[in-house]
Write a structure and sequence with these properties.
This protein is an alpha/beta fold. Helix content is 44%, strand content 15%.
């Protein structure tokens, strides 16, 4: 683990090194980055952003930023930001391969949605989750980022972000987001999951669910681990929200360039939803992906997804 603790003379470093055991922390010098702050400043390491990036990729599993200052943000933090919002019932690993491909070009952030494994909040509404992400963008990036992408539930949250703030991002990549509500589907979710929720703790049952999602097999361990940590209340809440979401009238004010993707093998409702989103965003693009099922694009075809991201933003 590489620790950044700006202006630290050593006290915080050694306290953190003790607390993160058994993980190994950075070498004892160089946790403060940038030009030396005074004569004899042995704690601060002057290294370029590019060299630091290569070193982190080659030698470290984690980067921990304990404290930052304006100089650190200016020298190491001002990069184009891409936020990718995972699908319902999944987690950040939905975009793990995509992030690995894009990290040389962008600062990629993979939030965990409310009500999912690793989140500290229960799921309430799509609207509330969108507000939380906007608060995060305000706090960290001054109110807007280069691109936001989202799959399924994450795509709905992305659309809600765009309806709440027209310029939250310059580019949006919406994948398989449902905007045609079904009250009948929402009604049957609670009794259906109330009767079978306990079965998700069994690998055989989770494997059947996993196979129906058409996700490549290497992700089953992540899927099983994280679905077992989702409470019944959260699962019912976000599945019902997913089945009832509709576009807000304010979406028409969005200034982002929106790109919509849907799989050829997806349900009629999903394909109709993609067409409806396309209609509501003048100048948007809609691509129907041959032979692909729901969610396959970003999960199973990371290289193609990453190439589309680069293609979309190259006009900057």
């Amino acid at each position: 683990m590489y620790l950044v603790s700006q202006g630290d003379s050593g006290f915080c470093y050694f306290v953190i090194r003790f607390n993160v055991r058994p993980k190994a922390l950075t070498a004892s010098l160089g946790w403060s980055l940038g030009e030396p702050r005074y004569d004899g400043d042995i704690w601060t390491r002057d290294v370029s952003c590019e060299d630091l990036h290569e070193e982190l990729l080659a030698n470290y599993d984690y980067l921990a930023i304990f404290s930052k200052d304006d100089g650190f943000i200016e020298d190491y933090g001002k990069h184009d930001v891409v936020i990718l919002l995972h699908g319902g019932g999944l987690s950040w690993w939905n975009y793990r391969e995509v992030a690995e491909l894009l990290q040389a070009h962008f600062h990629v952030i993979l939030p965990i949605l409310d009500g999912h494994a690793g989140s500290d909040r229960a799921f309430t509404t799509i609207e509330e989750n969108a507000r939380e992400i906007l608060d995060f963008i305000d706090e960290r990036f001054g109110g807007s980022v280069l691109m936001i992408g989202g799959l399924s539930l994450g795509g709905q949250i992305l659309l809600e972000i765009l309806s709440q703030r027209k310029d939250a991002c310059r580019y949006a990549l919406v994948e398989s987001a449902r905007v045609i509500p079904s009250k009948m589907t929402a009604f049957f979710i609670k009794p259906a999951f109330g009767s079978c929720y306990s079965l998700i703790q069994y690998p055989w049952f989770s494997k059947c669910q996993f196979q129906s999602l058409k996700i490549h097999s290497e992700l089953f361990a992540d899927y099983f681990r994280d679905t077992c940590q989702i409470t019944k209340q959260d699962m019912i809440a976000f599945l019902q929200a997913n089945s009832l979401y509709t576009l807000k009238p304010s979406i028409s004010h969005c200034s982002a360039k929106v790109h919509i993707f849907v799989g050829e093998k997806e349900t009629q409702t999903m394909r109709r939803s993609a067409e409806e989103i396309h209609k509501r965003f003048p100048g948007s693009t809609l691509r129907v992906l041959p032979r692909l099922y729901h969610g396959e694009f970003s999960i199973n075809h990371a290289a193609a997804y990453g190439n589309w991201v680069l293609e979309i933003v190259k006009e900057r």
